[in-house]
Amino acid sequence: MLAVGPVAASAATAPQQIIYPRPESEHDSRYLYDWEVLRMALEKTRASFGPYELHQAAQYMSPARVTAEAAGPGPINLFVRATSVQLEQQFRPVRIPVDRGLIGYRLLLVRNEDLPRFAGVDTLDQLRRFRIGQGKGWVDVGILQAAGFKVVEGNNYDGLFSMLTVKRFDALSRSVDEALREYDERHEQVGFEVEPSLALYYPLARYFFTRRDAEGEVLARRLEAGLEAMVQDGSLQALFMTYKGPLIKRSGLAQRRLFRIPNPSLPPETPLARSELWYRPQESAGKH
Q1: What is the Cα–Cα distance from 257 to 260, expressed in whole angstroms?
Q2: Given 38, 113, 138, 223, which residue has the most CB atoms within 10 angstroms?
Q3: What is the pLDDT of residues 87-105, one digit of tens each?
Q4: What superkingdom heads the lineage (predicted)?
């Protein structure tokens, strides 16, 4: 029977096997930061939990395929995802936000010719007139719909950008860092802009999830210990700013008109009271 606490590392300890998903396509760079956080958390717990081996799954997978693999006998035993009540019931969450809640700050990717339409938005009701694109099954879909937005879902990540171009929806809602990175990677081929003055916010956390079995509990406890150590020594915040700080600065997030909407799918166990776990736009604006 597997223990769920730290184990003493020794030469005889078999390496802990961690298999995480490959992204949806060769152009999908969304998860590079997450896996760097994962590696650091595992390294910080090597002495107490022992050696590990980290592998990426062989095939590109959609989010739905990832959860199906992780829920069944497939090889994937860890993934990162925006949380919801349903997801936390099915899998074991590690309740330290990997991206410090940045995923809840949303910018809009829009067609260049539509920029004047968005420039006239002063209220949330005015923003609700636009159709918002999201990926099928993303937790954001329900959040936006509950707030009165019309949401158009796309079946795959890469296809969302084509859907924007052919006017299936008016704006693609993305987190701050995703929006700027995707603009850099794709705008010349697809033709869109980051809307410069607006932002949405809803409380949302991206967690590492493991299986709800003995091995999954061991891995979750290890990641909790590693991430807590990173929060306490400042290395999580430092890694966050290294990967995401330049994009946040470019976004001008602190100067945007910010519309706040609730997240009815946020689990009550979400550690909102731990302010050290959450990013605030004032950090990048130099206001503390």
Answers
A1: 10
A2: 223
A3: 999 999 999 999 999 999 9
A4: Bacteria
